[in-house]
Amino acid sequence: KGPAYFRKTLVIIQFAVSVLLIVSTGVILQQMKMLQGSKLYNQADQIVSVRFGGVAPLERYPALRNEILLDPQISEVALSVHLPRRENFGGLLETSFILPDISGDQDYNWKHLQGDYHFPEVFDMELVAGRSFDVQNVNDSSNFVINETAVRTLNMSAEEVIGLTLQDTATREDGRIIGVVKDFPFESIYSSIKPMVIQPKQHRRNQILYVKLPASQLSEKIAYLEKTWKEVLPGAPFDYWFLSEEFGRMYRAELKLTNLVRLFSVLAVLIACLGLYGLASYTAEQKTKEIGVRKVLGATVPQIVLMLVADFLKMILIACLIALPLGYFLMQDWLENFVYRIDMGWMTFALSVAIIVGLTLLTVSYESIKASTVDPAKSLKYE
């Protein structure tokens, strides 16, 4: 019996590894899907970033923007800081503000995102209260739009903060809060969303041109952008990338991990199926006489198949009892690295078990049915 137990132990280990990898793949894919649903990421394939600061004079930006928008299929163009903020870039500039209307000299150190009037439209910022910037309104050059997290630090509602004065403590310049936008992750999801102020005032050096392109004809629109750029800014290098490439660089490790775990899951399942097939063939051969006797005594094909499959289902149960708790704790530990993360539901674990059970039944049933349909006379003569 020793060799039989050893073979079964190996199959249980293969099952456990397969279940563990399938669970891990499911959790990682769900976490990456949540990431890809963020405000910046879900438009990343359509937004082109072009290096502007240090390459082109700021005074030429209005002429360039107007020329680009002559193409009716290009909806939005803006100039702002480099997004998303990767760790090696450092965070957004943090500015100290006071709200003299409600809190006197109390400082609020908020992230300061500098761009132009059109930044909220390019990135499809969703207004919760108030309005966005209006290029026709000269006062808006000193006004502000803030995010929901900033509103929460004030213990006020979004509607209540509209119209309040916000003053930069360093420059003593002030403006009014004209709008509140929904929170959006402008940094990695390893970082929590901070209170943020958006102001239509360009950063001195950090300037990136953002152009939202239609979903189709991307190559044609890139060619149009390059042609327009060279006409308006002759001699300036046209250095562009899609926002999706920036996310790819930001989450390179996560994307590699996703691909590796997916690959190893497929390999583990294939190896487990091969092991199952071999063990099923061996088991059917060993029980040839028993199967013949059972058939003579009136056992049906489904009853014999169930008898042969039952041992494998027991092995799956043991493997799941090992792999599911281990998978839960390992994935919970991995998710702790993220500030924003999914909740692991039972569906991921149930689906993993269902996949393994389904593959087992498919693999084992073939040999089981073949063995159970042999003529009992031949089975009983088997040596």
Task: Provide a short characterization of the protein structure.
The protein has 383 residues and is an alpha+beta fold. The chain has helices spanning 2-36, 61-68, 119-122, 148-153, 158-161, 218-232, 243-250, 252-286, 288-296, 301-335, 346-372, 376-381, and strands at 47-51, 76-80, 94-98, 108-114, 127-130, 144-147, 165-168, 174-181, 196-199, 208-212, 240-242. It has a six-stranded mixed β-barrel with strand order 3-4-9-6-8-7. Strands 2-10-1-11 form a four-stranded antiparallel sheet.
Top keywords for this entry?
11 strands, alpha+beta, 12 helices, 383 residues, six-stranded mixed beta barrel
Structure description:
- The chain has 383 residues and is an alpha+beta fold.
- It has helices spanning 2-36, 61-68, 119-122, 148-153, 158-161, 218-232, 243-250, 252-286, 288-296, 301-335, 346-372, 376-381, and strands at 47-51, 76-80, 94-98, 108-114, 127-130, 144-147, 165-168, 174-181, 196-199, 208-212, 240-242.
- It is built from twelve helices and eleven strands.
- A six-stranded mixed beta barrel has the order 3-4-9-6-8-7. A four-stranded antiparallel sheet has the order 2-10-1-11.
- Strand 7 and strand 8 form a beta hairpin.
- Helix 1 packs antiparallel against helix 11 (346-372).
- The two termini are 19 Å apart.
